[in-house]
Amino acid sequence: ILIKMLLFLSQANNSSFLSLFHLGFYANLLITQTPKHITAQAGNGAQLLCELRREHAGVYWYRWSQEKQNFEFLMFSSPMGKATYGTNMSQEKFSAHGASAHTYSLHISHLHASDNGIYYCSISQSSQLILGTGTRLSVGKHQPWGSKMYHCDEQGQGVMHGSGPFPILRCKDGAVRFEETYETG
Fold first, then answer.
1. What are phi and psi of 136, to 5 degrees?
2. Counted domains in the chain
3. What is the pLDDT of residue 184?
4. pTM of the prediction?
């Protein structure tokens, strides 16, 4: 399910304010985001994927910050690779790639606790902003199992990226749960 919302962006004192107004719920037939949840170590990077059912002129990327209780406009990315960044958003931190007019990815580098949040890719259709399913990014401190990213796949299985000793992963509600037993690999 995704929420159909109106977007109002205003400028005041060189700051952008984003307000989203709820208009109703619609089945998510247009945008799919994967994975649903990523857990990554501070200092590392993360990649979020966005698949569109139809071609569009590009995607917008937003972050919902639970801490700040607001949506932040990160960037707009076109299929030709042109990017427009939000206020105080840097190219060193965020980069987007359009593999096609249907598939986009957002790369976030040098992760920090302030990067925690739910990331949404979105499209503009009929003067309305349509949000994807969202990807929750959880940035943790150094973990005993090394510098890897973890997420749940479409079948609800734990998936990890990286090397070193692997924890046993269990997925529930799209979130990865770690157990104390470790495998080596």
1. -85, 125
2. 2
3. 33
4. 0.65
Return the bridge partners of 97, or none: 105
Do residues 13 and 75 both lie within one domain? yes
Residue given tokens 């990890």 in the structure block: 160
| Residue-wise pLDDT tens digits, 124-138 | 888 888 889 999 999
Q: What is the CATH number of the domain that holds 129?
A: 2.60.40.10
Region for residue 53 given its phi and psi (left: phi exceeds 0; alpha: psi -120 to 50; beta: otherwise) = alpha
Assess whether 66 and 152 both reside in one domain: no
- Tens digit of each residue's pLDDT (9 = 90 or more) over 73-119: 999 998 777 899 999 999 999 998 877 778 899 999 999 999 999 99
Range of the domain at 45: 2-142
Amino acid at the residue 184 = T
Q: What residues contact residue 126 under an 8 Å CB cut-off, 6+ apart?
A: none
**How is the beta sheet containing 46-52 ordered, strand by strand?**
31-34, 46-52, 103-108, 94-98
3-state secondary structure 110-169: CCCHHHCEEEEEEEEECCEEEECCCEEEEEECCCCCCCCEEEECCCCCEEEECCCCEEEE
116, burial (CB in 10 Å: exposed 0-12, middle 13-18, buried 19+) = middle
Element (H, E) at 98: strand 94-98
Same domain, 162 and 126: no
Residues 137 and 157 placed together within one structural domain of the fold: no
Domain co-membership, 63 together with 100: yes
